[in-house]
Amino acid sequence: MDKRVYNFAAGPSTLPLEVLTEARDEFLNFRGTGMSVTEISHRDKTYEEVVKDAEALVRELLNVPDDYCVIFVQGGASTQFAAVPLNLMHSGKADYIVTGNFAKKAWQEGQIYGEAKKIGDSSDKIYTYIPDVDSLGYTDGADYVHITSNNTIFGSRYDKFPVCKAPLVADMSSEIFSREINVADFGVIYAGAQKNLAPAGVTIVIAKRALIGNPLKICPTMLKWKVQDENGSLYNTPPAFSIYMADLVLRNLKKKGGVKAINEINVYKAGLLYDFIDNSKLYKNNVEKKYRSIMNVPFVTGSDELDAKFVAEAKKAGLVSLKGHRLVGGMRASIYNAMPVEGVQALIAFMKKFEVENG
Ligand SMILES: *Cc1c(COP(=O)(O)O)cnc(C)c1O
Prior knowledge:
Blueprint: E1 6-7, H1 17-25, H2 45-62, E2 68-73, H3 76-88, E3 93-98, H4 101-113, E4 115-121, E5 145-148, E6 150-151, E7 156-157, E8 168-171, E9 188-192, E10 203-208, H5 225-230, H6 240-255, H7 258-279, E11 296-299, H8 304-316, E12 319-320, E13 331-334, H9 341-358
Parallel strand pairs: 1-12, 3-4, 3-5, 5-8, 8-9
Antiparallel strand pairs: 2-10, 6-7, 9-10, 11-13
Helix pairs in contact: 1-6, 2-6, 3-4, 7-9
The chain binds pyridoxal-5'-phosphate.
Pyridoxal-5'-phosphate binds at residues 11, 76-78, 102, 148, 152, 171, 173-174, 192, 195.
């Protein structure tokens, strides 16, 4: 390839071209320091400004209330599967709604620390829907209820969130900043950055401060949200480059009009693709319509052979990483914030041509 492709990877995934260009242009001499951002001390004022700016932008773009912390941590969303119980599971009881593979992993991790109860499960239909959140048996006195708001592998998402007594904890890794949310409805939100925000290496945690003051005795210092909050995400060496990139992406998002504006584009992009799939004779998406993700769109032709041919020919046409997750098969188009409308249009044009030739 001698030019940039349309990259539909689920994560790490495509980033805005303007951001990549900006990072390239200041890579050798970061804002007049004569050093690269990858060389500078994380205690340097110029770098501290980056972390402060990134935090301020998260607060602004998601309207984060003042009594919530916004921290940048390491270890990916998977480490937060443990951090959640280690910070919150005081009574030893929590509820989990299992709507996909990552939700299941979070639930399994929760079981290490206490009574992690699965109160909802959509595995009976291969995670193609979200259980009705109003009719689940929430546990009295649970420390939290854990959900995965968008299921990256199966392409489903919550159309509305549970309203429950216990604080709601949401893994938003594959959709944060893609649609408007009311942060105050959640106790904790966390998200690995490599889907919709930055290169891999940093995870955002947004947590109500009243909930995080008393982590379990066995909680490692590095996993204590309170410690990270008190130290402005600089308790130890942070994933400096990833936070810097997140800051550039957030500035870019603000310039584009913020979450509301990007959501309108996301809804439009996903609509184009789902409409095409629903009207095609060859392709099928199996997720119940009202739970369809606007970030991850899986589809199949019904023939493994044809699916493999699709993925290979699409790659030759500059449409890459369309192979579905091994648990689902077929194809998956991840169309995160940074995927331009033109990328989705190019994919649909290719799908049409492929259907004519192979249908
Ligand atoms: C990718 C993903 C994860 C895993 O993230 P890591 O950073 O690799 O640990 C967890 N949850 C969801 C919803 C994801 O999409």
